[in-house]
Amino acid sequence: MSTIATTIAGPKTYSAEELQALHLAMNAKAKRKKMLQKTALVTMNLIVCLFMLFPLLYTISVAFMPSGELYTMAMNIVPKHPTLENFVEAFHKIPLVRFVLNSFLVAGSITLGQIVTCSLAAFAFSFLDFKGKNILFMLVMATMMVPGEATIISNYLTVGSLGLLDTYIVLILPSLTSAMGIFLFRQFYMTFPVSLYESAKLDGCGNLRFIVKILMPLTKSAMGAMAVYTFINAWNMYMWPLLVTGSDSKRTVQIGISMLNSVDAQSITLMLAGVVMIIIPSISIFIVGQKALIKGMFSGAVKG
Q1: Which DSSP category does 190 fall into?
Q2: In angstroms, rounded to a whole number, what is the distance separating the alpha carbons of residues 175 and 240?
Q3: Contact 122, 186 (CB under 8 A)
Q4: Which keywords describe this protein according to UniProt (predicted)?
Q5: What is the C-alpha separation between 67 and 50, in angstroms, rounded?
Q6: CB within 8 A of 94, min separation 6: which ones?
Q7: How many distinct helices (H) and strands (E) make up the chain?
Q8: Other CB atoms within 10 A of residue 127 CB
Q9: Which residues contact 174 (CB under 8 A, 6 or more apart)?
Q10: In Å, how far are 14, 36, 47, 100 from 43, measured between CA atoms?
Q11: Is 238 helix (H, G, I), strand (E, B) or coil?
Q12: Neighbouring C-beta atoms of residue 244, cutoff 10 Å
């Protein structure tokens, strides 16, 4: 009888106060659930971040650690007596400032050179019409599959015959252009209509003026991505500078860091102190230009 009476009576009605309380309770439950999900996601990201950054953090820790604390049976992750002696000794043992200046000169020149040469080549492949353009572009892209080790001996013999060994020119010249840069700029230029170039030509605008006045202001993101990518690669060059330089006045910082490694037990802490100092510029460049790098890498992938 009670079931029949409930059915006849219909659904239960709620007052305005009860509905408001129910609404607040549901909102509070949803907020708690969202907060728990966000907390779990942040915690997981922190764990993954610490796992990925552990080698870098341990390197920094060892750089501030006396060599006596490193070579012990105890696993010392954090230095008990932090010191700057390793950094001071690294500066005294090798001309680190000279090596850093050389790397800045070489990396900056290569970056500027690749932006100029790659943008010019990409302009030709994008806007100019000449016979064999597609075949030539395919050949340029095919060079990306050739490892640098396959051409390093022939390049060395070439620059040696020209008398360019142990000079800044030999460090910069072989890297003044890249297939990757040409591809990146071409993909970006392809997003512009050909009518833009044709209109500029009708107005009497030359090719170089069109590149400088129109294309470059519109391709700042691609240029930023290219600059960051090229500078970091040039800063980290090791094999070519090691092969073509023989004096401290022309060596780059990567070669200088390897000079800190010796049979001395203290060399590990010295070398890691040097590593910490030389990765600061590249990490700073990446942090400052990461937005431009990501934007430039993806901006030319979608037309419209």
Answers
A1: T
A2: 10
A3: yes
A4: Cell membrane, Membrane, Transmembrane, Transmembrane helix, Transport
A5: 25
A6: 248, 256, 259, 260, 274
A7: 16, 0
A8: 20
A9: 155, 159, 240
A10: 41, 10, 6, 38
A11: coil
A12: 21
Q: CA angle at residue 29 from 25 to 35, to 5 degrees?
A: 145
- CA angle at 76 for the pair 73 and 78, rounded to the nearest 5°: 170
Tell me 211's DSSP state. Answer: I
What is the C-alpha separation between 15 and 286, in angstroms, rounded?
60
Q: Which helix (H) or strand (E) holds 49?
A: helix 16-63
Domain boundary assignment for the chain: 14-63, 87-299
- Residue 87, phi-psi category: left (phi > 0), alpha (psi -120 to 50), beta (remainder): alpha
In angstroms, the CA 182 to CA 173 distance is 17
What confidence tens digit (pLDDT) does each residue in 185-223 have? 998 888 888 888 888 888 888 888 888 888 888 888 888
Q: Report which residue type is found at 252.
A: T
CA–CA separation, 143 vs 210, rounded Å?
A: 28
- What residues contact residue 202 under an 8 Å CB cut-off, 6+ apart? none
pLDDT tens digit string along 134-153? Answer: 899 999 999 888 888 888 99
